[in-house]
Design brief:
Strand order of the largest sheet: 9-10-8-7-6-5-4-1-11
Helix content: 40-55%
CATH class of the largest domain: Alpha Beta
Strand content: 15-25%
Oligomer: single chain
Shape: globular
């Protein structure tokens, strides 16, 4: 198996494009988004058209690289763009880099933002994988999240995706749900999981609710208006998720991600493997040679950034991600990491590594963290469900090491 140092030295073969536009900002969202209203559409929005000009310019100015094996168009709500606009972005990537045969081309879609003919347009433009942002099947919950769609929209969207996959036009699709929501108990979450399994999406992403600063939820939490599950209930929710989905045939290949055989997200595995990727657009992060570069989060600052010279964005080989970050993303994966190899590549001494393992000993004794030969991984489902403690100790250890 090639080590991660070698992988980071390869030219990137993955690209992320950020489309910041949304109809509205959800109450938990802190992404770089630009709300345009419930009736906005790429076909008649000058704001979207102007942004796409900037985005196409950034793609054209990027360093050369090999054909792309994965492309992910995220946001925001990329399905606010018309199929022709999505097609123009994919064509630009194809002209500049090339698209490898069988490349995975993913598009995030909101359930209330498309219909059957529009989906067919995206597939004709080159999209072959869809990430559907459902979040919940409960209308009352969707309203409390600030979502625009309702359960009927979600079910109809899933039906269109299922038909497209049956017809051979769509290779795969994923459904996003959020667990750990305010007032959510085990019975309600069990029902949500049953509905998800009944839809039979090839892939499921189950995200824990995180209260981010500056969001509506953060404001409500500060006022004592947000009743969230405690840590014990949160762990029970995650364990229920893992047990339910694994019983339905889904492999738990990353903390938040489950897939039927052959449907793991190839693009997301690039992030978790430590390999590099191109990133384009407002607020996007790239790591073409292992070193992260974040773009400005406002349109004016992004336009100004593009107009200036940014040698780091032009990408020559850089030192790569620090040891702690490589270990953090590695432990998110079911297969874990080869700890000694990573430590040796990063110049971590045996004594320093021994200190980290000492901090981790309680988790090993509880069976949450396992050593299998040279590889270390979180147990499934308990270790993955309770990973925060292991990862917090890693962050604290690294901060002390770098401070010294």
């Amino acid at each position: 198996m090639e080590d991660q140092v070698n992988r980071r030295s390869w030219p990137p073969r993955s690209a992320y494009l950020h489309i910041p536009f949304c109809h509205r900002r959800c109450f938990y969202c802190d992404f770089a988004v630009v709300p345009l209203g419930d009736h906005a559409d790429g076909a008649n929005s000058g704001s979207i058209a102007g942004y796409l000009e900037l985005l196409l310019g950034e793609i054209a100015a990027a360093p050369a690289g090999p054909p792309l094996a994965t492309v992910y168009v995220g946001g925001g709500t990329p399905s606010m763009l018309t199929p022709a606009q999505v097609g123009s972005l994919l064509a630009a990537l194809g002209t500049h880099f090339g698209l490898a045969p069988g490349a995975e081309i993913s598009l995030e879609m909101d359930p209330a933002s498309f219909d059957g003919p529009r989906l067919a347009g995206y597939l004709a433009a080159g999209v072959n994988r869809v990430s559907l942002g459902g979040q919940s099947f409960d209308d009352a919950v969707l309203a409390r999240l600030g979502r625009r769609h309702r359960s009927t929209d979600l079910l109809q969207a899933a039906s269109w995706l299922h038909q497209a996959r049956q017809g051979g036009d769509l290779a795969s699709w994923s459904l996003d749900l959020i667990q750990g929501l305010p007032e959510q108990g085990l019975a309600a979450w069990r029902q949500q999981l049953a509905q998800a399994v009944a839809l039979a999406p090839p892939h499921l992403s189950i995200y824990d609710l995180i209260i981010e600063p500056g969001t509506v939820f953060a404001w409500r939490q500060g006022r004592g208006e947000l009743e969230l599950p405690d840590a014990d209930l949160g762990a029970d929710l995650m364990e229920l998720t893992a047990q339910t989905l694994q019983a339905a045939g889904y492999g738990h290949y990353e903390i938040s991600n489950f897939a039927l055989p052959g449907h793991a997200s190839r693009h997301n595995r690039v992030y978790w493997s430590g390999a590099g990727w191109w990133g384009f657009g407002l607020g996007a992060t790239s790591a073409p040679w292992g070193q992260r570069l974040a773009r400005p989060r406002t349109r004016a600052a992004y336009a100004e950034w593009l107009a200036e010279s940014h040698p780091a964005s032009r990408g020559t080989q850089a030192p790569g991600l620090p040891f702690d970050e490589r270990l953090l993303v590695g432990l998110r994966r079911r297969e874990g990491v080869r700890l000694a190899d990573l430590a040796g590549q990063a110049g971590v001494t045996s004594a320093e590594l021994g200190d980290l393992l000492g901090r981790w000993q309680p988790f090993r004794e509880r069976g949450l963290l396992l050593q299998e030969g040279p590889r270390w991984r979180l147990s499934d489902p308990e270790g993955l469900a309770l990973s925060n403690g292991v990862l917090r100790e890693l962050v604290a250890w690294w901060e002390e090491r770098t401070a010294g």
